[in-house]
Amino acid sequence: MFNFFLLILIYTGIYSLMSMGQNLMTGYTGMLSLCQAGFFAIGSYVTAILTTRYGFSFWATIPLSAMMAAVFGILIGLPTLRLKGDYLAIATLGFGEIVRNVLNNWDSLTGGPMGIQRIPMVKFFGFTINPYKKIAFLVMVWIFVLVFYIMFERLGRSRMGRALQAIRDDEIAAEAMGINTTKYKVWAFAIGAAAAGVAGSLQTVYSLSVTPASYTFMVSVLVLCMVVLGGMGNFAAVILGTFIIQLISYFPQLVGLSSVIPAQFKQILFGLILVCMMIWRPQGIIGTRSYMVGKNRVKMEAADELA
Amino acid sequence: MVSVSEFFQHLMNGLTLGGIYALIALGYTMVYGILKFINFAHGDILMFGAYIGLFCFDALRGNAPLGTWTFISFFIAMLISMVVTAGLGVATERIAYRPLRKANRLAPLLSAIGVSFILSNSAAWIWGTQSRKLNYPFDNTPFNIKGVVITPHQVMVLIVSLIMMVSLILFVNKTRMGKAMRAVSLDQDTSRLMGINVNQVISMTFAIGSALAASGGMLIALDYKVYPSMGMMLGLKAFVAAVVGGIGNIGGAMLGGILLGLLETFGVAIFGIPTAMKDTISFAILILVLLLKPEGLLGKAVKEKV
Question: Per-residue confidence at B301, pLDDT binned at 50, 70, 90?
Fold first, then answer.
């Protein structure tokens, strides 16, 4: 039971990296990307291939996973981000599927549908952090989460973060104010993808094997659900959303009812969460932290309702 | 080089595939034309249509041998499936999209993804994840015209999709409701002022789009398998078809669907693209079209007004 709770916390950590990346794209910039699973897979496979075949240490693969995911993010982003937002959703959905398609078929590199097994465990100054030492692994994952959280929070308050919010609120007006919208959108996309890549590396050394079947569209929707549930545009809220979704995911096992509750049940629930949140609480359970405080904020909300 | 008969063979295969893509693409394009939003759940609505048709057909057919009755019951099943699926489409619009009509652009998209997830997983829960096959409604012995092998299924697909498309064009251009639809897609507010019941028109659009998707689903069930997640890839391709033709344009969706079917068939058969990468073709086309001619073949470029 306690171990199970640790497992949920570890997955919350790994998925938090992805959902914070998604939040930068969707919550901050208003771009609906549906391929966090694709970037997650790229990060996983970079670590898996480099550690098993070329003897890289896990730590050396992390920047490479992040970079690889970012490069793919830029490649997919450049043609689609200049267009209307809706196209991005479909193009990224297609991209996610194609990543899985390639992983499934490029046998010589990825091992095909069987994937890659026997991935070396993480070593840290002679201390092995393997998945069986759950507390050590938990600490490692959450250090990553903390680093990324601070990075994202600071990014959100920087010039770039303000530019991204301006793009979300009104792209044409942002452009008129001299913001290079394409540049900022592509950067946000690349950074969000890089975070998912790092999450992929962590996932690889936790499960110690990778198969294409674990990077389906469902993962992308799950991540989206976490962002929507927590509150778009608020990184701390997104981590909370991630925790709640993971808790729901593992709830049947946690209470020992996994044989009674069909697997599709929780996925239907996730779909319902998306629809219901959009209708009744689009700002998420916590809501977006606004930079305006006190009276001004209330005024702005009132103005929004009038508009 | 390919021989003439091979060419016609691929042409025939491409046209039947394209006809089905076109039927599905119409649903995307009609909804986009009116609400300016991509109905992500359209592929899953198609999947529901295929399942309902499949079960209706099995129930109607019973143990009857192949013959006139099985042939007729295929069409009855298609009709029932179209009606039920139209209802499903209207219901999703009422429940998940209508409350969000005034919300920001992202909200209905997210809601649609939620609906898609609910539909595909409900199907997996109710009917199981194994794939099913429609029993042949009629004799499918292929006939051979000068080296070109044509199956009765292909003929059926071509005829049904042609009938559907022609009747849709007639409906949109000749009837009162069709006129209202065109008006709403041009300008919702002005149409309302002119006394058009906009909500009714939007419901009608979802009903027609879903019914067309159901018929497409039935036609797919003739030759391919039916399974709960089938809607995703089909939906993606049909969307590409709609974009290629110019999203929002009904003729464009038909043209785009057929073009995509042909490109896929010829891409595999003539340019030697591996079958496993077949799905990648449509995606590459999407990126190309978005880069070179984002308004599509028949669409009009719209300047965004400030």
Answer: low
Whether residues B161 and B209 fall in one domain: yes
Instruction: Give the model confidence (pLDDT) of B183-220 as tens digits.
Output: 999 888 999 999 999 999 999 999 999 999 999 999 99
Is A272 within 8 Å of chain B by CB?
A: yes
> With 70 as the cut, is the pLDDT of residue A296 above it?
no
**Residue B29 has which token pair?**
């394009």
Question: Taking every pair of C-alpha atoms in chain A, what is the biggest distance, in angstroms?
Answer: 62
Q: In this predicted model, what pLDDT tens digit does every residue of B231-283 receive, in sequence order?
A: 888 888 898 899 888 888 888 999 999 999 999 888 888 777 777 677 778 87
| Ramachandran angles phi, psi of A233, nearest 5° | 95, 0
- Report the residue of chain A nearest B277, measured CA to CA: A101
Which top CATH class is A2-306? Answer: mainly alpha
B18 neighbors B261 (Cβ within 8 angstroms): yes
Q: Which of B47, B110, B280 to mutate to test the interface with A (most CBs of A within 10 A)?
A: B110
Q: Give exposure, B66-105, as e/b (b: 16+ Cβ within 10 Å).
A: eeeebeebbeebbbbbbebbbebbbebbeebbbbbeeeee
For residues B127 and B229, give the distance between their C-alpha atoms in angstroms, rounded to a whole number: 12
| Cross-strand bridge partners of residue B144 | B149
Rounded Cα–Cα distance for residues A292 and B21 (Å): 49
Angle (nearest 5°) at CA A13 between A9 and A17: 160
Residue B238: CB partners within 8 Å, gap ≥ 6?
Answer: B21, B24, B25, B27, B28, B42, B43, B257
Q: Which of B185, B202, B228 is the last residue of a domain?
A: B228
User: Does residue B21 fall inside a structural domain?
Assistant: no
CB pairs under 8 A between A and B: 119
Measured in whole angstroms, how far is the alpha carbon of residue A210 from the centre of its chain?
A: 18
Contact at 8 Å (CB) between B158 and B15? Answer: yes
Which residues 235-264 on chain B approach chain A with CB closer than 8 angstroms?
A: 236, 239-240, 243
The verdict on B140 and B209 lying in the same domain is yes
- The answer to whether A99 touches A106, Cβ cutoff 8 Å, is no
Q: Where are the beta strands (DSSP E) in A182-221?
A: none
Q: A293: pLDDT confidence band, cut at 50, 70 and 90?
A: very low
- Coil/strand/helix, residue B150: strand
Overall domain count for chain B: 2
ipTM confidence:
0.84
